[in-house]
User: Fold this.
Amino acid sequence: MKFEKSIATFLAALMSLVSVAYPVLAATNLGQYPGFLINADGSLGAYVVVGASASSQDVIGATDLASRLAQAAAITTTVPGTSAAINGLQKDEVDINFGNMSVTFGGPFPDPIRNFHYSGLLQGTISYKGNTYNYHEALALGDTYFSHDFGTAGINGTETMVVHSNQIKYEYVFDSALNCTALATTTPGSTCTLTTPEYTNPVKITLLGKPFVIVGIGGGQVIMLSGSVGTATSTSGVTFGSYTLYSDLGYNGEWARVVIKDASGNTVETKVINEGDSFDFTAEGITVKVTSARALQDGTVVGTDVVVGTISAVQKTYTTSCDVTSTGTSDTKFPGETSWCIQVSGFANSGAIAVNDKIDVVYKPQISPQYLKYTGSAVTLPMPNSYGEIGFPGWNYNTFATLTLKVVEGISGYHMIGGGATNQTVAASNLNGIEIDSDTTGSIVDPNTVTGYSRAYILFNTTFGSTTYPVLIGFWDSTNSRVGVNTTSCGTGALNDYCAQLGAGDSTAFKFTISYGGGANLADWQYLYVNVTDPSSAPACQLGGTCTSLFYAFQLGTTTDNAGVVFSWVNKTSTWSSSQPPTFRLYTTDSAEDYDVAVTNTPSGGGAAAYSYVGKATQDVVANTGAIILAPISYTASNQVLVKVPAQALAVKAYVGKVGTGATVGGTYQQIVPITQSIAKLDSEVTAADKLAKDFVLVGGPCVNTLVAELAIASGNATAKFPYACTSWPARNFGRIQVIDDAFATGHQVIVVAGTRAADTRLAAQVLMQYDTLLTSQNASAVEVTSLSASGITPV
Amino acid sequence: MAQESTSRVRIKFSAKKLIAILIILAILPAGYLYAKYVMPINTWTYEGRSVGFRINLREAQKVPIITNFASPKGPDFLVRDALVRDDVTNITFLFKPTDDRNNSLYVVEETEIIKALTFAYLFSTQLQRIPTFDAQAVDSYSNITATQLNPKIVLVHPNFGNATLVRQDGYIIYVQGKSTNSFDSDKIQFDLATVRLMMAILKIKIQ
Assistant:
């Protein structure tokens, strides 16, 4: 394992340039700290050792180093693709066409989502007057759905998470009945109601990770306090914002004196507040509510329970509905949020909580519905207090072949000789038509031979006589950089044998297979249908516009929807003669037009699919078939279209939960590995076995740390591993940090943190603690330290 | 009427065998009881990982935890609740320097507590992060203040302590060893208090 660790450390440093063996590696340098102390599994492989005689500066320095190492012990975890380490529930089969998330509306997510789906939603017990009561948290997604409807402003063809007001709902559900009135005081029936709230013995809960205190219940309403909830004494404070509240004097059950200090520790307010009362400190903008005063007979505060919050925000009455626009005491927004508010369900009984009573935190976006559009970056709707999120990181498979369709003219076609190859003989020249180019080799598949190409063509030759219109299918011979055509069977009728001569009024077609995997897997097949019609038949324009001279249109689709995308190629020239084949453009002008490209859409909210004309759209447009037209107007103005064809049937990937600790969407992240064994020892506790098995961070010089003294014992001799013994330490003030390879055992490192005085050792420890800013580029194995800055660090 | 028949299997034991069996029968439950109630416990499996301790958990559990008010959930809960919270940003260790020989004990105890807190934070569903830690020397154990964002752990060296205990006062936790006038014994007392705090942090209870 040690060998692996060293290899891992050095590979990182040497950028994996070569395969190396441990014994020939160069000396470890300080820029590699603390990597060489971390095992391959991310755990810490070192002891921090202080001398049995340590100054208080050594104590602080060693603690700093140990705590920093505890956080540095981490393993790098790679997250493939765009997927993320999700703590929660992730589904990658949400329909792109008006696909709901919740199972209640036909989606894949459970309703509601609970702890066993996402552990961030809690279930457990609360304590009240010595009894425990069950509760659980849940999240309902309502009718939240996905759409790419081009016709809905706000979606415009982009895959979008559509969130309506009052649909996403966090629920705190009481699973046990709790009769507050009966238990709160020795005179049951007098408190916990809306008219007589119970401040001394309230019911304390946590909503979305924030503390709330229930003081009154009944009639479908709940009175709660919120803010910083805690117990203040003369020495233990409760902090809210930049103020900390203490309580230094009180009368048991009656009143407490509170002292408010600012961030600098200066007392800014002192006030006696009766139990159950609150007071607004207007200068500080905070309200303090004293819920319980406990004090000894001499006035010494045992504990003053307080709730501290923003003025007008500490005590609120919550009802069965809420909004995010009210202000003052009617403001029921969740603390710190602008679009989440609190409402309740149940709570019919005065002073008592019944099973299944709920406190809801409801999402009410300022503008409903809210459109969260996926434009290549993960979309998230965060829950309050970073409690989790509803995320839309992208597609089920983020793999596409991108096709570019554009006009070509003057092409020469060479004879195809099989297997995708051509010979040097020109079969036809001066050909005009359309080129289909793919960024994925082999993804344009000839259905007859199942050969994959990176480029294909529909080409038009000059006419043979006055009534014969020759059309050719071409494939790119990438070896010889030639367009291959096959004119050996160029009869009238079908294009299946790559060449056809149309008679008056005829039409023909060819169907390419578009397959990211080169045709090997049926699941990734889409089809590009090329329909060619003789101009003399003057067909009606498929798209509903005016197409008096349409030669042909392309359709990209699937077996179930063969025309998910329609590219409207139209002849530009009015003649197709024996000397001039036709030239083309998208629809009827050279500029961008809506009718250049059409996609099928299912309307937002459901209904029958219909065409949308997207040629002038500025953003990517998704078709029902999963093809994505890239920013059409950027290309249609130059008679091109770019379309991404998915490698699998396209679906939305969505999650409810949290991206894992330290994780990013895609790439790598650091996962902290907790330390399991002691990380600090006294030098007198280090055993011979420890020396063979461990690395060490030795804090203190040879006068106070016997292990450092041991390394320096041969000082003055060439074999000394640390240059200074206690008696030979230089007569100047400085700290020293030094990495020593093979110090006590081969393959193990020691790092010495020492100094002339205790303060110098402390300084060296501070430098090492800030290794990520002060030492990362340090190539030396030893430095002297005179100040906590780069200029104060000198390699030696 | 069917004839009822009985058959008996007779097993002969020699006296020696009988004694051996009786001894085994006596040892098994004794071994079980020893393992369950007596055998020293120096490691504990927490969230699937074996955590090592400097001292026997059975002994450490005897160290009292004193709190400034009662909680139905017990003193361990109050101690943990003061240190392991979603709003804690930094935890400070305070210590009063003693002679050089004894100062070193502070490092050992601090890092043990850091180990426990690291575990508690990383494996808390809500937290999954580690606050920062720092250490400060103090001249006196009086006038110490703390907040819920920055709780403090005050290490009281046996040189300054008259009892081995853990004490909670709001967001201040005192870890105190009893003086025995012997470095090695003092170390044990300090370890006992430290491990008791770790047990509260990690919710460890020994039968």
